[in-house]
Design goal:
221 residues; alpha/beta; six-stranded mixed beta sheet; 9 helices; globular
Length: 221
Protein backbone atom coordinates (compact mmCIF):
# COMPACT_ATOMS: atom_id res chain seq x y z
CA UNK A 1 0.00 0.00 0.00
CA UNK A 2 2.94 2.34 0.51
CA UNK A 3 3.59 2.42 -3.24
CA UNK A 4 -0.06 3.21 -3.93
CA UNK A 5 -0.02 6.04 -1.38
CA UNK A 6 3.14 7.40 -2.98
CA UNK A 7 1.44 7.42 -6.38
CA UNK A 8 -1.64 9.16 -4.97
CA UNK A 9 0.54 11.85 -3.36
CA UNK A 10 2.39 12.14 -6.64
CA UNK A 11 -0.83 12.81 -8.50
CA UNK A 12 -1.73 15.47 -5.96
CA UNK A 13 1.61 17.17 -6.67
CA UNK A 14 0.97 16.83 -10.41
CA UNK A 15 -2.51 18.29 -9.93
CA UNK A 16 -1.11 21.22 -7.95
CA UNK A 17 1.55 21.98 -10.54
CA UNK A 18 -0.41 21.62 -13.77
CA UNK A 19 -4.00 22.36 -12.79
CA UNK A 20 -3.27 25.28 -10.48
CA UNK A 21 0.21 26.72 -10.92
CA UNK A 22 0.40 26.11 -14.72
CA UNK A 23 -3.27 25.87 -15.58
CA UNK A 24 -2.77 27.48 -18.99
CA UNK A 25 -0.79 24.42 -20.17
CA UNK A 26 -3.64 21.99 -19.59
CA UNK A 27 -6.18 24.50 -20.86
CA UNK A 28 -4.28 24.21 -24.14
CA UNK A 29 -3.88 20.43 -23.94
CA UNK A 30 -7.62 20.01 -23.44
CA UNK A 31 -7.98 21.09 -27.06
CA UNK A 32 -5.63 18.36 -28.35
CA UNK A 33 -2.02 17.23 -28.46
CA UNK A 34 0.63 18.61 -30.81
CA UNK A 35 3.96 16.99 -29.88
CA UNK A 36 6.89 17.55 -32.19
CA UNK A 37 8.80 14.51 -30.97
CA UNK A 38 8.11 10.78 -30.97
CA UNK A 39 10.30 8.89 -28.51
CA UNK A 40 10.62 5.11 -28.63
CA UNK A 41 11.89 3.91 -25.27
CA UNK A 42 12.25 0.83 -23.12
CA UNK A 43 9.72 -0.34 -20.53
CA UNK A 44 12.51 -0.37 -17.92
CA UNK A 45 11.33 1.45 -14.78
CA UNK A 46 14.68 3.26 -14.50
CA UNK A 47 14.34 4.97 -17.86
CA UNK A 48 11.30 7.21 -17.82
CA UNK A 49 11.52 9.36 -20.98
CA UNK A 50 9.64 12.35 -19.58
CA UNK A 51 11.59 12.29 -16.31
CA UNK A 52 15.09 12.06 -17.77
CA UNK A 53 14.38 14.71 -20.44
CA UNK A 54 12.51 17.10 -18.17
CA UNK A 55 9.47 17.06 -20.44
CA UNK A 56 6.07 18.48 -19.65
CA UNK A 57 2.79 16.82 -20.63
CA UNK A 58 2.26 17.23 -24.35
CA UNK A 59 5.96 17.58 -25.21
CA UNK A 60 6.43 14.11 -26.67
CA UNK A 61 4.50 11.12 -27.95
CA UNK A 62 5.99 8.00 -26.36
CA UNK A 63 6.08 4.35 -27.41
CA UNK A 64 7.60 1.98 -24.85
CA UNK A 65 8.39 -1.71 -25.20
CA UNK A 66 11.04 -4.17 -24.11
CA UNK A 67 14.45 -2.97 -25.39
CA UNK A 68 13.01 0.01 -27.33
CA UNK A 69 12.68 -2.05 -30.50
CA UNK A 70 10.97 -1.21 -33.77
CA UNK A 71 9.87 -4.18 -35.89
CA UNK A 72 10.26 -3.87 -39.67
CA UNK A 73 7.29 -2.73 -41.74
CA UNK A 74 4.86 -5.59 -42.22
CA UNK A 75 1.17 -5.72 -43.11
CA UNK A 76 -0.63 -8.68 -41.57
CA UNK A 77 -3.76 -9.79 -39.79
CA UNK A 78 -2.20 -9.83 -36.32
CA UNK A 79 -2.42 -6.72 -34.10
CA UNK A 80 0.34 -4.23 -34.88
CA UNK A 81 0.75 -2.19 -31.71
CA UNK A 82 4.09 -0.53 -32.45
CA UNK A 83 3.32 0.03 -36.12
CA UNK A 84 -0.08 1.56 -35.39
CA UNK A 85 1.46 3.97 -32.86
CA UNK A 86 4.12 4.92 -35.42
CA UNK A 87 1.47 5.48 -38.05
CA UNK A 88 -0.56 7.73 -35.75
CA UNK A 89 2.44 9.76 -34.59
CA UNK A 90 3.84 10.28 -38.08
CA UNK A 91 0.72 10.69 -40.19
CA UNK A 92 -1.79 12.16 -37.74
CA UNK A 93 0.34 14.10 -35.26
CA UNK A 94 2.98 15.01 -37.87
CA UNK A 95 5.92 14.76 -35.47
CA UNK A 96 9.15 16.25 -36.75
CA UNK A 97 11.63 13.88 -35.13
CA UNK A 98 11.86 10.32 -33.85
CA UNK A 99 14.24 9.42 -31.04
CA UNK A 100 15.09 5.80 -30.26
CA UNK A 101 16.28 5.85 -26.66
CA UNK A 102 18.27 2.82 -25.55
CA UNK A 103 19.95 2.35 -22.19
CA UNK A 104 22.61 0.51 -20.23
CA UNK A 105 21.76 -2.65 -18.26
CA UNK A 106 18.81 -3.48 -20.52
CA UNK A 107 17.15 -6.72 -19.47
CA UNK A 108 15.79 -7.31 -22.96
CA UNK A 109 19.25 -7.14 -24.50
CA UNK A 110 20.58 -9.43 -21.78
CA UNK A 111 17.88 -11.92 -22.75
CA UNK A 112 18.92 -11.53 -26.39
CA UNK A 113 22.57 -12.27 -25.62
CA UNK A 114 22.19 -14.87 -22.85
CA UNK A 115 18.78 -16.41 -23.56
CA UNK A 116 15.70 -16.62 -21.33
CA UNK A 117 14.63 -19.19 -18.76
CA UNK A 118 11.20 -20.86 -18.57
CA UNK A 119 10.65 -18.96 -15.32
CA UNK A 120 11.34 -15.52 -16.79
CA UNK A 121 9.51 -16.13 -20.06
CA UNK A 122 7.18 -19.14 -19.66
CA UNK A 123 5.32 -18.39 -22.90
CA UNK A 124 8.40 -17.36 -24.90
CA UNK A 125 7.05 -13.88 -25.56
CA UNK A 126 10.30 -12.13 -24.63
CA UNK A 127 12.45 -14.47 -26.71
CA UNK A 128 10.27 -14.06 -29.80
CA UNK A 129 10.11 -10.27 -29.40
CA UNK A 130 13.88 -9.98 -29.06
CA UNK A 131 14.36 -11.77 -32.39
CA UNK A 132 13.82 -8.32 -33.91
CA UNK A 133 17.35 -7.48 -32.74
CA UNK A 134 18.95 -10.79 -33.75
CA UNK A 135 21.20 -9.02 -36.27
CA UNK A 136 22.63 -6.92 -33.42
CA UNK A 137 23.52 -10.07 -31.47
CA UNK A 138 25.14 -11.63 -34.51
CA UNK A 139 27.15 -8.47 -35.20
CA UNK A 140 28.49 -8.30 -31.64
CA UNK A 141 29.47 -11.97 -31.55
CA UNK A 142 31.17 -11.58 -34.92
CA UNK A 143 33.04 -8.35 -34.14
CA UNK A 144 33.74 -8.86 -30.41
CA UNK A 145 34.02 -12.63 -29.91
CA UNK A 146 36.69 -12.41 -27.19
CA UNK A 147 35.32 -9.45 -25.25
CA UNK A 148 33.90 -9.94 -21.74
CA UNK A 149 30.12 -10.33 -21.43
CA UNK A 150 29.64 -6.81 -20.05
CA UNK A 151 31.33 -5.28 -23.09
CA UNK A 152 29.27 -7.45 -25.43
CA UNK A 153 26.06 -6.42 -23.69
CA UNK A 154 26.87 -2.74 -24.04
CA UNK A 155 27.79 -3.21 -27.69
CA UNK A 156 24.51 -5.05 -28.28
CA UNK A 157 22.54 -2.28 -26.55
CA UNK A 158 24.07 0.23 -28.93
CA UNK A 159 23.72 -2.00 -31.99
CA UNK A 160 20.04 -2.65 -31.27
CA UNK A 161 19.35 1.09 -31.46
CA UNK A 162 20.74 1.04 -34.99
CA UNK A 163 18.50 -1.93 -35.83
CA UNK A 164 15.47 0.09 -34.79
CA UNK A 165 16.62 3.10 -36.81
CA UNK A 166 17.06 0.88 -39.85
CA UNK A 167 13.65 -0.71 -39.35
CA UNK A 168 12.02 2.71 -39.12
CA UNK A 169 13.20 3.37 -42.68
CA UNK A 170 11.31 0.28 -43.92
CA UNK A 171 8.04 2.15 -43.30
CA UNK A 172 7.36 3.91 -46.62
CA UNK A 173 5.76 6.99 -45.10
CA UNK A 174 8.68 7.40 -42.71
CA UNK A 175 11.29 6.99 -45.45
CA UNK A 176 9.43 9.50 -47.61
CA UNK A 177 9.39 12.15 -44.90
CA UNK A 178 13.05 11.58 -44.05
CA UNK A 179 14.03 11.93 -47.71
CA UNK A 180 11.99 15.15 -47.89
CA UNK A 181 13.71 16.48 -44.73
CA UNK A 182 10.34 16.64 -42.98
CA UNK A 183 11.36 14.07 -40.38
CA UNK A 184 14.66 13.32 -38.63
CA UNK A 185 15.70 10.11 -36.89
CA UNK A 186 17.94 10.01 -33.81
CA UNK A 187 19.54 7.25 -31.77
CA UNK A 188 20.25 8.03 -28.10
CA UNK A 189 21.80 5.91 -25.34
CA UNK A 190 21.39 6.54 -21.62
CA UNK A 191 24.53 5.40 -19.75
CA UNK A 192 23.10 4.67 -16.31
CA UNK A 193 26.46 4.06 -14.63
CA UNK A 194 27.94 7.37 -15.77
CA UNK A 195 24.74 9.42 -15.82
CA UNK A 196 25.55 10.39 -19.39
CA UNK A 197 23.70 10.60 -22.70
CA UNK A 198 25.21 9.48 -26.01
CA UNK A 199 23.88 10.12 -29.50
CA UNK A 200 24.61 8.24 -32.71
CA UNK A 201 26.53 10.18 -35.34
CA UNK A 202 25.87 8.82 -38.87
CA UNK A 203 28.85 10.79 -40.14
CA UNK A 204 31.23 9.21 -37.62
CA UNK A 205 29.32 5.91 -37.48
CA UNK A 206 29.59 5.84 -33.69
CA UNK A 207 27.89 7.03 -30.53
CA UNK A 208 29.29 10.32 -29.25
CA UNK A 209 28.64 12.22 -26.00
CA UNK A 210 25.63 14.48 -26.00
CA UNK A 211 25.72 15.05 -22.24
CA UNK A 212 28.91 13.97 -20.42
CA UNK A 213 29.11 12.56 -16.87
CA UNK A 214 29.06 15.16 -14.09
CA UNK A 215 32.40 13.96 -12.70
CA UNK A 216 34.10 14.25 -16.10
CA UNK A 217 32.61 17.00 -18.26
CA UNK A 218 35.00 16.29 -21.14
CA UNK A 219 34.99 12.55 -21.81
CA UNK A 220 32.16 10.01 -21.47
CA UNK A 221 32.90 6.77 -19.64
Amino acid sequence: MQDIEKFIRGFQQFQQKYFLEQQELFDELKQGQHPKTLLIGCCDSRVDPALITGSDPGDMFVIRNIANLVPPFQIGSTPQGISSALEFAINSLNVERVIVLGHQHCGGIRALMQGTSPESSPSGFVERWMQIAESARERVLRDLPDHPPAAQLRAAELASILVSLQNLMTFPWIAERVEQSRLSLHGWYFDIDAGALLAYSPRRAEFLPLICPLDNPQVPR
